[in-house]
Amino acid sequence: MSRHSPQVGSRRGLAALEAGLGEDLTRLGLPRASWTARRDGPDGTTLHDVLVIGGGQFGIGLAAALKLAGIPDTLVIDRAEEGSEGPWTTFARMPTLRSPKHLPGICFGIPRLTFQSWYRARFGDAAWGALYKIPNAIWQDYIGWVRRTLDLPVWNGVEATRLEPAADHVAVMLSDGTRLHARHVVVATGRGAVGGQNHVAGISPALGPDRVAHTSDEIDFERLRGKRVAVVGVGASAFDNAATAMEAGAASVDMLARRHALPQLNKGRPSSGIGFLEGWAGLPDADRWRLAVYLDAMQGVPPHETVLRALERPGLSVHFATRLLSAKPSGEGLRLEVENGPTGEYDFLILGTGFRVDLSREPLFDAISPRIALWRDTYMPPDDLVRPHLGLYPYLGDALELKATEGPPLDRIHLFNAASWLSAGAMALDMPSLDIAPARLVTGITRALFAEDFEAIFASLCDWQDEHELEATPFYAPRYVNETGR
């Protein structure tokens, strides 16, 4: 039996876990009572308190935090079908997550919501002890379990295409022409919807998707059997795709790197510690910029398991200190011109070049992108720390809200994705922050909703007469119930 095959009795184990979780939530008084004021949208339809774009790990985490905080009038939308949200079962081509298995997951300090509790209930204690790192599909199953167990409102197969902020809400256009309305919108799209894929100059558009693809694209690796493949980049995803091509039977894979050696230290480990997660956003701009420049230069290290996986089969070559000059069609394949590297004929090219942050390139922000405050609008670094690509990051507020350079505010739109990195560090980027980040964002949204609903909330406070505390005592005086201390 595979260690990831549910043991006999796993259904009973999950049932017991869910029953215990229900008791935990009851003892903690969760979810909190709903407290926001009911409002209608401009067309008479529901005006959601919060609409979350993206149903992956951070979107589900945020929806859970909102519900537990007494803000149940929320909706999560995702363009993927259920079970395919995020990268884990689509373009994440490593067999396991890169993070350690002991990270808590979407839990808010509740032990029975942690990944470990779910995994042990489903697969058993022995399987947990034998587990090294979490398989992608298993992690996707855990996210789905949190969604179902907490009964979170998610619409799948729904794509947001445009945001149109108004004075008291944001209109969200969908691809089918439907308009949704919410008082706050959170874009929780991971590394998507922030600017698109990074591409390199010199690649002919005539190559088309049958001869070149980005690592985040759908790739038919079976077509690469017996083929000559080139990969631009030596990051983790580049190695994942190289390994997948080799496993599919590619004749050879040449990886092209500009740097002279692979990064040696994974600075992402210490920079995702609790001090960085909680403290980054509170630093002066100069210190946040300095941190970002340093970590951007260090870049990520491909895990040793990923590198060794790619090297398991003969035919992989890594070429350092090279530069791709051009890629052009040649017969049924393509020809690469490479400075200080393997110029020649190939059948397929994979771009492991990552993603850029540039909201002006995202149709979702077309209506507002000229007014979005960027770091380059707000902070001028010293000459030796100028990095134009970092200047394109949006300059976000404490609740990860957009700021406007002119005109009406944009603070009803929050970025809970890779575009928040320069403003808030890794808070909305990777697994280590999942147990705290959603609740931190909900605190900011709560403050905004409370201030906006203050008159209604204050009136409700004044009208509240549910508990006459002294009714059973000799001092009960109902005529003075509404006295304010005179």
Keywords for this entry:
globular; seven-stranded mixed sheet; FAD/NAD(P)-binding domain; 486 residues; 14 helices; 15 strands; alpha/beta; five-stranded parallel sheet; 17% strand
Explained architecture:
One of its GO terms (molecular function) is flavin adenine dinucleotide binding. It holds the Pfam family Pyr_redox_3. The chain is of the alpha/beta class and 486 residues long. The mean pLDDT is 94. Helix 6 runs parallel beside helix 9. It is built from 14 helices and 15 strands. Among the domains are: 31-99 and 134-195 and 357-452, FAD/NAD(P)-binding domain (3-Layer(bba) Sandwich), CATH 3.50.50; 205-262 and 302-351, FAD/NAD(P)-binding domain. The strands form three sheets. Strands 1, 2, 3, 4, 5, 6 and 15 form a seven-stranded mixed beta sheet that branches. A five-stranded parallel beta sheet has the order 7-14-8-9-10, covered by helices on one side. Strands 11-12-13 form a three-stranded antiparallel beta sheet, with no helix packed on it.
